[in-house]
């Protein structure tokens, strides 16, 4: 593909896009545009080889540098952008793709707009201020994701038990998908440069290797006990009933395996949380709304 506006080989030049948009990224609006062509060109390739790219969803399209690369691999792209100035620019810059029905631009907040029902994958350089909320809107859809995060967040998402990074985020993200960090990205790859390094994560959806009686309760239970990660599970289960919604936390502690109750949350594998959450569901009298 050639950048029709710049004549460069490859996708549209990210610096030229910013110049044409005529604005500077505003960090207060989570605007850090990816300007390293090599990174941009690699991003869509992190989708699994067998991913269906018929309809790719992009959150936070900015000046469209990634949108352009997505249009090169996808049949259709839906791009969400909250900033009206960027949305207006994208409509002009990508008028041909919009006209052809290959690009749909949704101007609005990614936390509020409806995502398309038939999206087959999402590839996004996320607005970091809402990356967690957006990710937990995307994960339950069950499509492959390639998402850029702050590096620390990415590493927490992909962490294994018994590491400092392992926590609520690792277990809850891992409930929906196999999560891995596929590339770390330096600050200089962005304009303006963010305060911290970034990383690209791939999430491949799959059913968890354990069963839980209720997804919502499982996630709530895990969230609750990790608020007391320095305590034994025995104390964490007892002290966090107001979060997990357990009316009878002592009954859970009494019925649970001694070894599990003596461990700390950071030492338990997802399947062990599932075992405990199932027990808690049966004997702990969870309330619907804590
Ligand atoms: C990190 S920039 C990425 C821009 C572009 N995709 C790129 O890679 O250069 C995030 C973009 O998300 C937009 N944004 C910020 N908050 C948003 C929200 N709540 N909903 C939708 N877009 C948002 C910003 O205006 C910005 O364009």
TrEMBL record:
GO MF term (any one): rRNA (adenine-N6,N6-)-dimethyltransferase activity
Start and end residues of each Ribosomal RNA adenine methylase transferase N-terminal domain: 39-207
Keyword Transport: no
UniProt keyword RNA-binding present: yes
Subcellular localization, as worded in the UniProt entry: Cytoplasm
Principal location listed in the UniProt entry: cytoplasm
Enzyme Commission numbers on file: 2.1.1.-
Keywords: Cytoplasm, Methyltransferase, RNA-binding, rRNA processing, S-adenosyl-L-methionine, Transferase
Residues reported to bind S-adenosyl-L-methionine: 32, 34, 60, 81, 109, 125
SUPFAM superfamilies named among the record's database cross-references: S-adenosyl-L-methionine-dependent methyltransferases
One Pfam family recorded for the sequence: RrnaAD
Start and end residues of each stretch annotated as Disordered: 1-24
GO cellular component: cytoplasm
Xref: SMART domains: rADc
Its biological purpose: Specifically dimethylates two adjacent adenosines in the loop of a conserved hairpin near the 3'-end of 16S rRNA in the 30S particle. May play a critical role in biogenesis of 30S subunits.
Family statement drawn from the similarity comment of this UniProt entry: Belongs to the class I-like SAM-binding methyltransferase superfamily. rRNA adenine N(6)-methyltransferase family. RsmA subfamily.
UniProt name for this protein: Probable ribosomal RNA small subunit methyltransferase A
Source organism per UniProt: Halomarina ordinaria
Gene name linked to the record: rsmA
